[in-house]
Amino acid sequence: MAVDDFEVTVDGEKIVGPVTLDQVRRGIEAWKLPPDVRLRRVGETTWRTAPEVLARASPKTEVGPASLSATAKTADRYMIHTPGSTAPPVGPFGVGVIKAMLDEGSILEGATACKVGESTWVPVAEILGAAGQVRGATPVAEEPEALDCEVLIDEAPSASEVAAPTVPETTASPKSPTSDFWTRATVFLWIALGLVPLVGFVIAVALAWQDKAEPDFAKCVQAEAKGDILGAETACNEAVTHDPNSKSGKAATAKLNEMKSAIAKAKAEKDATDAQAAAEKAAKDAEEARARAAASEAAMRDLRRRVSRSRSPSGDGGCAGMGKPPHGY
Question: In a 3-state reduction of DSSP, which class is residue 38?
Fold first, then answer.
């Protein structure tokens, strides 16, 4: 395996290699690889962007479309810096690579650029022509003052000083939507299981505070107001049975004591009324029985007469003319 063999990754998970820098350069120029693809030398663990590696390997070599003019490749080379960022400027890059990186999202529209050999920082949009190339560029804010881009290239941090992402030897597979769903479902289930006892406790407390005797006591009061003393007694007894210690249960007990004499009088009147009704019913039943007996006796007499006439030649029920004494039925 050659010393200049590299491994390539786009998303930090899938690693391809070994490849040479020339293959990487051709891949970027053919748009088969993004301009910010990361590289690491075979056997190392530190990843760096392709522009950084290619710039260090050949400072005058640019990564970008092959259609750029020779003038653009040699003269129009820029260092790129993001306003407000503490990271050092990166580059140098040509105009084509800068536009490609902007399109890919590798740099922001508010980034600024400094032409190699100069110290003036201007918006990237101005480098690309501003109008029609990118959306409105943001104003330049707090750029490095009087920095010579040649010095930036010469004093660029070494590989050990650049904080680059490291890819572990074994990378974990990304979470699937299904696993996320089951994670949320498990959390929801635990929350629900915690709420069920709480809801049950609240219901139990509400039922415990409920006056179970109240409906029957209300019936008791209404019946008393209508003059139905015995109905009021029944309702109050039901209230006391359901919840004797509640407010309505205690009120029902007091109401029963209050109506005690009225209840006794009502019961006596009811007993007298029931007795009279029973006597009248007995007399009526006896009269009906006598009537039924008389009707039955009359029917029997009529039956006897008809049987006697049908068997007697003389029609009088006797045996005259047959040598026997008369005999009536």
Answer: strand
Cα separation, 207 vs 243, whole angstroms: 12
Q: Report residue 40 as tokens.
A: 């690491």
Residue 177 pLDDT: 64
Q: Give the list of residues 6+ apart from residue 219 with CB closer than 8 angstroms, or none.
A: 231, 235, 238
For residue 64, the model assigns a pLDDT of 46
205, two tokens: 């407390």
Q: How far apart are CA 75 and CA 155, in angstroms?
A: 20
Give the C-alpha separation, 72 to 64, whole Å.
Answer: 11
Give the three-state DSSP class for 16. Answer: strand
Strand boundaries in 111-249, DSSP class E: 112-115, 121-123
Question: Consecutive sets of 10 residues in the chain, 329 residues long: mean pLDDT of each?
Answer: 73 80 80 79 85 68 42 58 78 74 76 84 78 40 41 41 41 59 85 84 75 91 92 93 90 92 93 94 95 94 86 56 54
| Reduced DSSP (H G I as helix, E B as strand, rest coil) percent helix, strand, coil of the chain, to 5 | 50, 10, 40
pLDDT at 253: 95
**Which secondary-structure segment (H or E) carries 270?**
helix 260-311
Task: Kindly state the tokens that stand for 286.
Answer: 């006896």
Structure tokens at 145: 């003052």
Cβ-contact 82, 176 below 8 angstroms: no
What residue type is 252 in one-letter code?
A
pTM of the model: 0.29
- Residue 325 pLDDT: 57
Q: Could you give the 3-state DSSP secondary structure of residue 114?
A: strand
Which sign, positive or negative, has the C-alpha torsion 20, 22, 23, 24? positive
DSSP secondary structure string for all residues of 48-111? EEHHHHHHHH-TT---S-TTS-HHHHHT-EEEEE-TT--SPPEEEEEHHHHHHHHHHTSS-TT-
